[in-house]
């Protein structure tokens, strides 16, 4: 418990070294670390949960990093303490980039009131989101009142991030021909605020037109509940900081809508239940592959599957029979 007590004490004074070590601990998949991480999360659970959690996504080239840099600096200037986490399932192949996240957000990274951290991969998107959820708890305990979760990948990562934040912000581009191009209906059903980014210079007018078109498209969605949240569509320029205050206000309005309707507690509860299910599944998989009998038989079965000597289902049955 000494390690946990030291980390808790460090988090209370927002010691950056303690924060980094605590996040490293909760990200670890070592059995001893998982036990210590559970003790740490239990110890700090009473001082977490009040932060505003925002997911931010958009297609490559939409300017997420520049936008987050501008939004983060604005929030710091407004008196907030801001943390940025990046969910990157593509890092399963590339290994991700630790320095990249800070060089992409130079102004924000230079501020003492911020903490920027990429989420490491654990071989699967589930491993990434597990570490991100735990990292958010640590950062909230350290007094960061605003957590921005950036989805670096596309597709499945948006769904994963939407299951751990209060509000989901989608950045769109004006210059895509069809303004809905690349934005799947499933993603639109997840978002709470949309911002047409890069609305600067000669493209400002295009962005306003795109925002109107997106607003019209969203009206096609049926809202059975008249009190349901209506997704606002705004314009922004991360490069020039245009529209940042309005977008933050829209995100705050959405959070207030959740609080006033009593949905925030239900949302957080459902997210914790989802985290529990994911944690159980991940540990069962880890336990399975760590069994000596599986480790001994798996390589040969993989060779036989590759050669076509045995079907995938038959090989799985042999392994699951242990």
Description:
- The chain has 322 residues and is an alpha/beta fold.
- It folds into 3 domains: 1-47, Up-down Bundle (Single alpha-helices involved in coiled-coils or other helix-helix interfaces), CATH 1.20.5; 48-261, Rossmann fold (3-Layer(aba) Sandwich); 277-320, no CATH class.
- 55% of the residues lie in helices and 12% in strands.
- It is built from 15 helices and 7 strands.
- It has helices spanning 2-12, 16-27, 31-44, 64-77, 91-94, 98-103, 106-109, 125-141, 156-162, 185-188, 204-218, 244-260, 263-290, 292-307, 312-320, and strands spanning 52-58, 82-87, 114-118, 146-151, 167-173, 193-197, 233-235.
- Strands 3-2-4-1-5-6-7 form a 7-stranded parallel β-sheet, sandwiched between helices.
- It is globular and about 65 Å long.
- It starts with a helix and ends with a helix.
What does the largest sheet look like? Answer: 7 strands, parallel
> Remind me, CATH topology of the largest domain?
Rossmann fold
- Succession of helices and strands: HHHEHEHHHEHEHEHEHEHHHH
How many domains would you count in the coordinates?
3
Concise structural overview:
This protein has 322 residues and is α/β, with parallel strands linked by helices.
Task: Name some characteristics of this structure.
alpha/beta; Single alpha-helices involved in coiled-coils or other helix-helix interfaces; Rossmann fold; seven-stranded parallel sheet; 55% helix; 12% strand
């Amino acid at each position: 418990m000494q390690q946990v007590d030291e980390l808790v004490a460090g988090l209370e004074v927002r010691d950056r070294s303690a924060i980094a070590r605590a996040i490293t601990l909760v990200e670890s998949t070592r059995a001893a670390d998982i036990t210590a991480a559970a003790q740490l999360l239990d110890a700090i659970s009473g001082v977490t949960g009040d932060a505003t959690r925002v997911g931010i996504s958009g297609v490559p080239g939409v300017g997420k990093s520049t936008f987050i840099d501008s939004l983060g600096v604005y929030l710091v200037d407004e008196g907030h303490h801001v943390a940025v986490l990046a969910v990157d399932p593509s890092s399963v192949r590339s290994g991700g980039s630790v320095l990249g996240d800070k060089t992409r957000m130079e102004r924000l990274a230079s501020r003492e009131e911020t903490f920027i951290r990429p989420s490491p991969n654990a071989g699967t998107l589930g491993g990434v989101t597990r570490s991100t959820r735990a990292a958010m708890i640590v950062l909230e305990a350290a007094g960061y009142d605003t957590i921005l979760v950036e989805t670096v990948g596309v597709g499945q990562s948006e769904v994963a991030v939407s299951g751990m934040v209060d509000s989901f912000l989608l950045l769109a581009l004006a210059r895509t021909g069809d303004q809905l191009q690349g934005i799947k209906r499933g993603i639109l059903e997840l978002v709470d605020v949309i911002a047409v980014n890069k609305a600067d210079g000669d493209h400002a007018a295009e962005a306003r037109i795109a925002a109107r078109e997106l607003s019209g498209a969203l009206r096609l969605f049926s809202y059975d509940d008249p009190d349901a949240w209506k997704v606002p569509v705004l314009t922004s320029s991360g490069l020039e900081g245009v529209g940042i205050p309005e977008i933050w206000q829209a995100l705050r309005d959405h959070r207030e809508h959740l609080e006033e309707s009593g949905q925030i507690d239900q949302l957080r509860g459902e997210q914790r239940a989802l985290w529990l299910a994911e944690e159980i599944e991940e540990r069962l998989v880890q336990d399975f592959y760590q069994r000596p009998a599986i480790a001994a038989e798996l390589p040969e079965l993989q060779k036989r599957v590759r050669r076509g000597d045995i079907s995938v289902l038959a090989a799985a049955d042999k392994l699951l029979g242990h």
